[in-house]
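Q: For a teaching session next week I want to show students how multiple molecules come together into a single three-dimensional assembly. I've collected the sequence lines for a complex. Could you give me the predicted structure tokens for the whole thing so I can convert them for display?
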Amino acid sequence: MKLTKGEYCQFSLKSRLALLKEFGVLITEKYVNEKLIRIFRIYDFYVEVLYDLLNNKFLRAEPVYNHQMVAHYLFE
Amino acid sequence: MSKTNNFFETVDQIVSDGVQKGILHLYTEDDRLSGNSILLKGKEVINFGSCSYLGLEFDDRLKNAAKLAVDNYGTQFSESRAYVSVRQYAELEELLQQLFAAYCVVMPTTTLGHIANIPVLVNDTDAVIVDHQVHNSVQVAIQLLKARGVYIELLRHNRMDLLESRVKQLRSKHRKIWYMADGIYSMFGDASPVDEVYALMDKYPELHYYVDDAHGMSIYGKHGRGYVLNNRRFHPKMVMGTSLNKAFASGGGVMLYPDAELARRVRTCGGPLITSGPMQPAALGAAVAAARIHLSDEIYDMQADLQENIRFAQLMLKKYGLPVISTTGAAVFFIGVSLPKMGYNMIRRMLNAGYYLNLGIFPAVPMKNTGIRFTITRLHTFSQIERMVQTMAEEFPKALAEEGLTMAQIYKAFKMALPEDLSLDKAVAAVISQSLALKTSHSTSIQGVDRQLWNSLFHGNGTFDWEGMDLLERSFTGNEKPEDNWQFDYIVVSDTAGNPIVATFLTTGLWKDDMLSPGAISAQIEARRIAEPYYLTSKVICTGSLLTEGQHLYINRESSLWKDAMQLLFEKIYVLQEKNKAANIMLRDFDGIDEALDSFFVDNGYFRISMPDNNIVLTHTWHDREGFVQHLSANSRVNFKKYVARHEGKFITEIRKNPAPEELDYWYSLYLNVKDHSLALNTFTLPRKIFENIAAHPDWEIITLKVKDNYDFTGIEKPVCVIFCHKTADTYTPLVIGLDYSYHKEYNTYRQALYQIVMRAKQLNCKKVNLGFSAGTEKRKVGAVSRSTYAYMQTKDSFNFEVLAAMNTSSSAYKM
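A: Of course. Below is the structure for the complete assembly, covering every listed component.
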């Protein structure tokens, strides 16, 4: 059963990553200024994951509200 | 059979049924356990029944500490803690004292902790108020107080308004009033209203709180102190027990106190701390390691992980539309399925699909509140949780269809509003459930039932043939007192050819809940009923009535449709139960246990109870008085000669009809003597009207026994015994007896009456004398054979029965 963006956001960063691991599909990734940006598709939305390569740390895993941004990642 | 035996008999019946169905008393078959999957009956399943909510049982630190402890201290240090404890105890108690910021005593189990605590903490002059749903381990310890006559009463679950009103009433008589409850309740996962209890303790100096927080331990609060202490101080009037056996994952229990003196006193005087063995070194080692984890920040990550799993499970349950009974955020979930058959069905389906869940069934919950209980641990993945919930949602409608139930019935059983999207389901189910093969007819009076049909089914079974029912209806309607007015319902389920498959009559009336309780308990309750006449009474809908005995339920077992017909009858009974606002349903009287019927009733949410034995005399094996005497057993013959034959000539026996009003008044007074004399079968007093109707009815006659003048030492010249008897061609049924007890001891009037009944039945060529319930020993002396009789019962609310079960003769009082 699908979670909505709002429900997804109720979870901690650690759980959001676990949800992506279990239910998400990696769509694309990109390196920008020592950061790894990954886009996952999960349920009916996309999630942007930001990973700090210098500190080996996940910074965020937020749903993408602006779909143009996904297009930007996908077709750039 | 005693109430206690009845209880164990019921539990045995239900649990054995579960064992037979392969869902209880299971064993894992794994050589090693390492995660949340277990091998059951050769099948790998995900375990959703573990109470080790944080998954610490597989933590290497705990495992290694346990192994090291065995290496260092052996498998056991077998000495009472009153003498010497292994050094790990001191270490563990010190760590736990830090963890809880309270004084503590470590126990081998939480149950033993309660047994050590409660008798020491509670004084004889204290009062104890017990939450209806408090864990069994607390209830076991409370039993020890009963022998001391401590005042104990049950409180409806979590009702703080009632708690306050009881405290107000009890505080003038008791220096301390203990409220005993769970932090998180083990079955539904709901919580004690701790803030409200704290507020009441602050308001009333007498109120103290004894709480078991086993299911809250580790998963809430600073250092995992539990639900009760989550963001709360340790209240100075609180004593808490909690488990190291669940999320703490080691073993043992810990008892916590607001001051050192209380802890010292329990440590010194608590029974199991003097005479029982200690925790094993391995468990102590693991507990020390677990305590260290709890005292580190790591515990908060673990708690957060678990909470995320709980949150995910809650979301999934909501999305899949399952009937969740409690949503408190605890790791225990309960999905309502209402009847045991649905519970068995679902558990079996889930096991087949690879998920092990618990069945929440009687006595943990009322029969009609059966449910699927499952727990969420930190070891579950989101996918496992979703797949389990998804499977449950897929299997649920299949099980409902298989068991002939609807979602609407489940919501109704748990008194929950039906979600809007399921309203259609209710309407559809009502249409679908209409059977083409069976037809139900219902009448609220025997006048609406075909006399020939009714008598073909019930004539000769007892006093409830068509004419008998007419008499009962006239007697128990239009009366002043509520207990003297019954609702009558006649139900016949027939096949398309009009052949009855199932037929019965039901009466709904007010019953005393202690009807089958020991007389001593009824005596206590009757004392209270002087001021509150309807204390511990309930409306009951039953097959038959309080004044009829015999096979009230006709079932044509040769019909292939009998189970379907019974389901229709159950449906009709539920409708009548709602309409008449009856708390309990009772199906009576069944001679012996019929395995198929027994299992069928249990599946449909009824539990079996033993009724008093029914006593029957068969008269066709002898011809005259001499033959009767010869037919008795040797012992009974001796008794007969000593107590009956010796006095036979002192009595004049008459058969009477149509008495004058003043004569009937006198007979009624004899009945009242008997009613007041014994509480063995405690019922409301019968109205005079029934005696008037009986006296005028052709199917009834009255036997009177007078003492001859030369033996009449009181000179009252009136009957000393009166018996109201129903007669058919085959059966003679004495229904009510009245006695003048002034002659009873001298002339054994009751035994003489039994003998005269049997002789009268023989005179009328009746083959069977139905002597009814109670006084089996006396009745066997006139040749009666006792038959075990059972009833099947379903309660909407078991509270009153639990109040009764909690009572015993040594307790000073039990109230609500």
